[in-house]
Write a structure and sequence with these properties.
heterodimer; A: mainly alpha; B: alpha/beta; Rossmann fold; six-stranded mixed β-sheet; three-stranded antiparallel β-sheet
């Protein structure tokens, strides 16, 4: 596994270039170009705000912002896994022609979406201020939360991308599973409305403590629950290791299966 | 000192007659999926000494490209082992990973990084690559505006400037106009002069005799003959002549 990580590190320039390509090529040819990276979350924010303060009035104060702080990191997770699933199959031509550590492809998807998420913070933070939500020192916890989420996203992207080469339906199954997962994760609703009876099941969901942590640091101005984040990080370290091993096992025959 | 060592290498492909790959198909064709094993390489043993040029020769389907892909780690051996010492660059396709909307210069960075160079290494080679590709001002145009010749020149320019210790070439020399081919050959001679190890696939015995020190003749996945390039090339040419006549 050490070899594997060293190899990926040796190809860091490829990773960097693929991320840049992903970010630039996405909006290439459109008039507004890179600005779309900012318009997407901005328009999302406007729509939610209109809907939830005029049409469907929510009980929670500042519901649009309540939703927004969790929806952005959720999108980072969900889009990365979905795009990650297709990443190896889409680049089949390259895989058949050139050797490079195959991990680079799903990793580049994760990193591109990570950058996108970070850029969307340039919309989120002014919006929070505009809605008079106090930003506190708890924001210092953000890099930690983001790192833990990235461990989860990376593990899933690695596993799904490799498995999808052998079983192409996975891409579509993942699409459905991500929707189900979305509704089972407290993004649209706060964690305390979950009935006590089913709560143990919800605590098994690794996305729950993450969304809770984002909400704590951005929306409530509180420190996240360090204990649950710590357990999650430990679990994810194991998952990430297993994912790398799993990927390495499956990648041997990728070039002939694609 | 061996740059590449192939020990008891076997490579099996599964040939599916009705390749069922989606769940629907898998259910419909349950148990009816017939797969046959096809041994593309059978018990290959090969040692390539550092600094030599080896030609892999053989008919279509004899396994020479498969062997090249196993050495370059694109394919994984079914059995046996491949030991490679030094940086490998593979020329299976010129300009792999080029993005049509990016300029030639941007694609140099992209392509060279896919071949495993770091940013610093690419910057050091940038001027040489641009000079070799002879694209003039086109270097700052998107590559979708390139002619196929320009595209190949840029691809080849990047690949041969990776500065590998071991270069694997798969019949890319068959493309391009005469002048370009000459230039490729000249560059290969230059790399030979620098003591690089080169393995290249061809079915032209003449090229083997001219360029290579050693040659390996593959036939139906097995080594039929290996030794000094001229001898193998002559035997292969005679065999092919006999087979044709």
């Amino acid at each position: 596994m050490c070899e594997q990580i060293k190899e990926i590190y040796a190809y860091r320039e490829m990773l960097r270039n693929l991320v840049a390509k992903e970010l630039r090529a996405r909006y290439k040819g459109s008039v507004l170009g890179f600005l779309w990276t900012f318009f997407n979350p901005l328009l999302m924010l406007v729509v939610y705000n209109v809907v939830f303060s005029f049409v469907m009035r929510a009980q929670i104060e500042n519901y649009a912002m309540f939703l927004f702080v969790a929806l952005l990191p959720w999108n980072y997770l969900s889009v990365s896994v979905l795009q990650g699933a297709a990443s190896l199959v889409q680049n089949g031509a390259l895989i058949k022609k050139i050797y490079f550590p195959r991990e680079v492809l799903p990793l580049s998807v994760v990193l591109a979406n990570l950058v996108n998420y970070l850029l969307s913070l340039l919309i989120l933070v002014p919006a929070l201020l505009a809605f008079k939500i106090k930003l506190t020192a708890a924001l210092l916890a953000f890099p930690v939360v983001l790192l833990v989420e990235t461990m989860l996203v990376t593990s899933l992207a690695l596993c799904v991308s490799a498995a999808n080469v052998y079983f192409r339906d996975l891409e579509h199954i993942v699409g459905i599973l991500m929707t189900v997962w979305f509704f089972l994760t407290p993004v649209l609703y706060p964690v305390d409305i979950i009935p006590a009876k089913v709560k143990p099941f919800f605590s098994l969901n690794p996305a729950t403590p993450l969304m809770e942590a984002y909400r704590a640091i951005f929306f409530y101005g509180r420190w996240p629950d360090w204990a649950s984040l710590g357990y999650l990080a430990a679990g994810l370290a194991v998952l990430l290791t297993l994912s790398l091993v799993f990927f390495n096992r499956l990648q041997r025959n990728i070039a002939e299966e694609i | 000192m061996a740059a590449v060592e192939v020990v008891n290498l076997w490579k099996k492909f599964r040939i599916y007659h009705e390749r069922a790959i989606s769940l629907k198909e898998r259910v419909i064709f349950w148990g009816r999926q017939r797969a046959e094993d096809f041994w593309a390489l059978k018990n290959i043993n090969l040692t390539v000494p550092r600094g030599t040029t080896v030609g892999l020769i053989g008919r279509n389907g004899s396994g020479k490209s498969t062997l090249l892909k196993v050495i370059s780690r694109i394919l994984y051996p079914t059995e046996g082992e491949v030991r490679v010492k030094g940086r490998v660059s593979t020329l299976l396709e010129l300009g792999a990973g080029f993005h049509p909307d990016f300029t030639g210069r941007e694609n140099i960075f992209l392509n060279a990084s896919i071949l495993g160079l770091t940013r610093k290494e690419i910057k050091e080679r940038l001027d040489d690559i641009i000079a070799f590709a002879e694209l003039g001002d086109f270097i700052d145009n998107p590559v979708r505006n390139y002619s196929s010749g320009m595209y190949m020149r840029l691809g080849f320019a990047v690949a041969v400037h990776v500065d590998p210790e071991i270069l694997l070439i798969d019949e890319v020399l068959a493309v391009g106009d005469l002048a370009f081919q000459e230039k490729c050959l000249a560059r290969i001679r230059e790399l030979q002069g620098q003591g690089k190890t080169i393995i290249f696939v061809t079915h032209a015995p003449k090229q083997v005799a001219e360029l290579c020190d050693l040659a390996v003749w593959l036939d139906r996945g097995e080594i039929r003959m290996q030794g000094p390039a001229r001898e193998v090339a002559r035997a292969y040419a005679e065999f092919m002549g006999g087979a044709a006549g």
